């Protein structure tokens, strides 16, 4: 591959603009005509292109693939395999391809990409790899363990990592458990269900007397379970 600069110059006049005495001398040795390397014709236009150590018409120096005028698309041309190419077509045909760090698929050399340090991504793959949040202009992102994370998922991962590497001390856990109320015993639970014990009727507790037995109204009859065949 050979990359060459393209320069645009004004065509030199056939006779030098000097005094009359030197004009007579120049007439004996007239300047050589400027020949286009593309069409082999004399360049008569005001401007010409100079590339590959040759002179060109502006219309003759074109990309051998897309036919664009190389003097208009940039200041560099590429040559390979006897082809004169623009940068885009050179990369498309001979450029090195890469692989997306998210999907591991090939990225064509001419395709626009997103970069994070040394990683390269398709535009559609550049999203949080935890929650698939697509980043907008101005969003922060983090590269953690070679994965792109949004700010929320990155901070959440930091919290869990800190808990894993710095667990709370055992004395702190014991101090927290000592302040917990004791669980109710089975006898206390039975007393609560029977309507007796410490959690009886508030009025009865205040008077110090035991609660009166519950009597069903005369118009209601208690229901019992009976086995039927």
What brief labels describe this structure?
229 residues; alpha+beta; Cysteine Rich Protein; 3-stranded antiparallel sheet; 26% helix; 18% strand; rod-shaped; Znf_LIM; LIM domain
The third-level CATH topology of the domain at 3-9 and 35-94 is Cysteine Rich Protein
Give the biggest sheet.
Answer: 3 strands, antiparallel
Helical element count?
Answer: 7
Order of helical and strand elements: EEHEEHEEHEEEEEEHHHH
Q: Give the end-to-end Cα distance, rounded to a whole number of Å.
A: 99 Å
Strands across the major sheet, in which order?
1-5-6
Structural class: alpha+beta
Low-confidence blocks of residues: 14-27, 195-209, 219-229
Fraction of residues in H or I helices: 25-40%
Rg estimate, integer Å: 45 Å
Q: Give the DSSP E fraction (strand runs of 2 or more residues).
A: 15-25%
Summed over residues and divided by their number, the pLDDT gives a mean of: 73
The CATH class designation of the domain at 3-9 and 35-94 is: Mainly Beta
